[in-house]
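User: Predict the structure for this protein chain, please.
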Amino acid sequence: MKIARFNEFILGCCLIVFSGIIFTFERFISVFKWVGESAPVKINGSGSYPTEPVMAGFFDNLFVPLLMFSGVYLIVMSIYEQKKQ
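Assistant: Here is the predicted structure, written as structure tokens:
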């Protein structure tokens, strides 16, 4: 049973890391899109663009909080079951 709890702990950590990767990738795409929109305006000298990129929020993508909360749940349950015995 110790192996199963350890696997839950590792899976929980992986889910948290994966949700962080998705969130970071979304923010990178937001900046990349903003640069793509602002570069031609800066070159031509006419037009307008936002002064800062519109960053994705934590709850904009359903998978980010779902994976985060699932990972935290698995870690807490694996620690709780370990302390229980």
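The chain has a mean pLDDT of 87.
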